[in-house]
## 1
Amino acid sequence: MAVARSRLAATAVQVAPALLGAVVRSRAGGAEVAVRITEVEAYEGLDDPASHAFRGPTPRAAIMFGPPGYLYCYFTYGMHWCANVVCGPDGTAAAVLLRAGAVIAGADVAAARRPTARRDRDLARGPARLAACLGLGAAHTGLDLCDEHSDVVLASMPDQPSAVICTGPRVGIRAATERQWRFWLPDESTVSGYRRHPKARYPQ
DNA sequence: AGGACGATTAACT
DNA sequence: GTTAATCGTCCTC
């Protein structure tokens, strides 16, 4: 099954905590891996200087302005891919970065894709690690996560947001570090540690 | 056409 | 704690 698109039509700040505990299932790359999400970040559009959508619908960011429920993968630091769930109503820019999760199916495949991981909890601990586990890259941006026949599916979301959710500044960004738009589940060993950007405008 | 800078990770000291 | 790896994107000539 796949999550209804309407559940993703709210702002990124609203959708992000609701995605904690969600399950993403991927058969990209020919083998099935599923992850339970434990850490996310919200990126809104034109008012968020840390968002790829801040400068408008550039070729890369255009998908953030489209309808919710689609996968946005981007390439960063010349070597890594990261994965987002596009959210917000059509015409507004918003996405939730999947920062970390626990592998709940296909751990053998995930481990083969993450040869440097020393423990299971490190397989999808970090956004580029999570995307690597799921086999995601350029070919998968634009996939419909709300179509259960897609290679990458948002299989489930909790009916109610978790009772206790931690928040803090987003990781690795220079601007808008005062916004507490990173959300994670407490007591989860897969949550990545906070790392301030070396050139952040405000100390954190 | 040129260059700065990453929504990061791993491997160092 | 520090730093190299590595290239697409986007801004500024």
## 2
Amino acid sequence: MKIVTWNVNSIRAREERLLAWLKKEKPDVLCLQELKVTNEKFPYDLITEAGYYSAVHGQPTYNGVAILSLTEPEDVVCGIQDDEDDPQARLIEATVNGARIINGYFPNGKEVGSDKYEYKLRWMQRLSDHMERTTSPDKDVVLVGDFNVAPDDSDVADPNQWAGSVLCYPDTRKAYEKFLSWGFTDVFRKHNPDGGVHTWWDYRRLAFQRNNGLRIDLVLATKSMAERCVAASVDRDERKGDKPSDHAPVIVEFS
DNA sequence: ATGGTTGCTTAGCAA
């Protein structure tokens, strides 16, 4: 089973690329973030024509997540199931081929010390609590998405430049590591232990041309799934050419 | 400290 996570930065702006990529790669599951579209305006017909089901959690202008899959997604749940009244569409999960797929668009956090950063840390804690409540590490669970976290400096082309950023700050990494101690493995890391592979390059400052990237799009798996993980890669070519997303797809295969 | 670019929506926000 091939599972992919891809922050498309607006699904409507990326329609052509998305359909070409689906046709070429034929993933079993494609988790998308930053749809920037409402459920009403989601291009269901195009996805159906491409042979995929769509489970969608959208909102106007910002955020938005979806799970596309070749077989029908079951038990779809949108949003973190807790008491907080959160209008931001950042989480969707579904069971596909017996595995629980959890797809998150973690908050960026803007700047350390800002209200948005407080929200980022709170959202990550809420997701940790959600995992505790709704599933367990002895099940087949995969948590994927744009984490807006570079787990360590080997995931950052220029660690000095990014040291104080919300993607690398120690509190950010501490919040991320709670998912590992809960029972998740970073399966991309397992297959690329040396680091230096990136998934996001800022549109600004010619970051891609200068190879100034970070690995912030991640695939975490519970033990039973991690044991079946046979390959992991980044489709760096998808960041090239006309009108790319600023993120590249991360592809992980399970036997 | 600021700027650089992209997308949604059309002035300003978010990333």
